[in-house]
Amino acid sequence: MDTTHQHEAEERLNQAQKMEAIGQLTGGVAHDFNNLLTVIVGNLDMIVRKPDNAQRVERLAASAMTAAKRGAEVTEKLLSFSRRQVLRPETVNPNRLLKDFRALLQRAVGETIEVRLDLDASLDPVRLDPGQFESAVLNLAVNARDAMPGGGTLTVRTCNAHLDPHETADRPDLRPGAYVLVSVSDTGYGMDDATLARAFEPFFTTKDVGKGTGLGLSQVYGFVRQAGGHAQIKSEASRGTSIELYLPRSVEKEAQNRPDGPMPLRRAASGEVVLVVEDEPAVLEMAVESLGELGYRTLTATQAEQALERLGGPERIDIMFSDVVMPGGMNGVQLSVEARRLRPGLRVLLASGYTGTALGEQGVPADLPLLSKPYRRDEPRTSSGSSWAERRV
């Protein structure tokens, strides 16, 4: 009976801690988004009231765009923490990604910090989203920089690791087996026990107000868990911090190098027609108007069934631009398969901001180009995605 009471008390405590974490998360989201929406709504209101001053309109619109981008970054980190971010996994060697990324890391931490790469030449490949990996390493580097205000050393190490059942006994989310270990260490002031216990919590931060969202480490945690791995922190006050990422070894062959640099803006040729499949009216209207500016003629559908009816008809359709998650029981990836069956030469571009569990753990197939919402017509391409202006669909 005593054991039962103890178990019930532990369950109540765990539930209370979960509710406290949810409250902290929602409060942090509301705080950040209310600030951003104040800028966006206020600037748009001023534009609507006095639209005649072109210079003023441009300045206010630029400020609203900056706030909207910050909102998109917060959302991306939340999705990564919750492991609901759209996956574009590839089989890669982390050493290659880190070498290509070194110059950006050095710029991120500044000249007072030395960046060292200690990379195992025999490192095994892993299967992950390269863009999320680079974002995670960058978040760790920025945190390390803030922990070394007077300068120091940032060391990124890689090696193969094998975890046996004894080592994973206290980590129910981690299976025994072969892993690749990526660690990011600094010589900064470290963490005390209280900070260490909460470091991965979303919106928990020791930085001053306005100097951090508290989502950096939670984004790293979400990325590693979504990749099937495990993250842990080793730190002592005044002795620096080391964050270790255990990523499952892949048995697949490493993918070829990804193309670098932006592709030129692609405009319509010979009256090309795009079928836009989107269930949100405002997003549909924006996509149609933007494509029209590029010279495309557009057809629309609000769900997969309607799109398939269009594709089965006599109308010319060169490209299908579809949302991933839609009502009606068929997602954008499934629609793409059926669309290509009906029209083998059809080119496809997908867009999504949140897939939930619609696509499972495999995400979007590598042969289907994907835009992350929110998107702009000519936004620069990143390593994890590209704009529709740059995809030669």
TrEMBL record:
<dbReference type="Pfam" id="PF00512">
    <property type="entry name" value="HisKA"/>
</dbReference>
<dbReference type="InterPro" id="IPR005467">
    <property type="entry name" value="His_kinase_dom"/>
</dbReference>
<dbReference type="Pfam" id="PF02518">
    <property type="entry name" value="HATPase_c"/>
</dbReference>
<dbReference type="Pfam" id="PF00072">
    <property type="entry name" value="Response_reg"/>
</dbReference>
<dbReference type="InterPro" id="IPR036097">
    <property type="entry name" value="HisK_dim/P_sf"/>
</dbReference>
<feature type="modified residue" description="4-aspartylphosphate">
    <location>
        <position position="323"/>
    </location>
</feature>
<dbReference type="InterPro" id="IPR011006">
    <property type="entry name" value="CheY-like_superfamily"/>
</dbReference>
<feature type="domain" description="Response regulatory">
    <location>
        <begin position="273"/>
        <end position="388"/>
    </location>
</feature>
<dbReference type="InterPro" id="IPR003594">
    <property type="entry name" value="HATPase_dom"/>
</dbReference>
<dbReference type="InterPro" id="IPR036890">
    <property type="entry name" value="HATPase_C_sf"/>
</dbReference>
<keyword id="KW-0067">ATP-binding</keyword>
<feature type="domain" description="Histidine kinase">
    <location>
        <begin position="28"/>
        <end position="251"/>
    </location>
</feature>
<keyword id="KW-0547">Nucleotide-binding</keyword>
<dbReference type="GO" id="GO:0005524">
    <property type="term" value="F:ATP binding"/>
</dbReference>
<feature type="region of interest" description="Disordered">
    <location>
        <begin position="363"/>
        <end position="393"/>
    </location>
</feature>
<dbReference type="InterPro" id="IPR001789">
    <property type="entry name" value="Sig_transdc_resp-reg_receiver"/>
</dbReference>
<keyword id="KW-0597">Phosphoprotein</keyword>
<dbReference type="InterPro" id="IPR004358">
    <property type="entry name" value="Sig_transdc_His_kin-like_C"/>
</dbReference>
<protein>
    <recommendedName>
        <fullName>histidine kinase</fullName>
        <ecNumber>2.7.13.3</ecNumber>
    </recommendedName>
</protein>
<dbReference type="InterPro" id="IPR003661">
    <property type="entry name" value="HisK_dim/P_dom"/>
</dbReference>
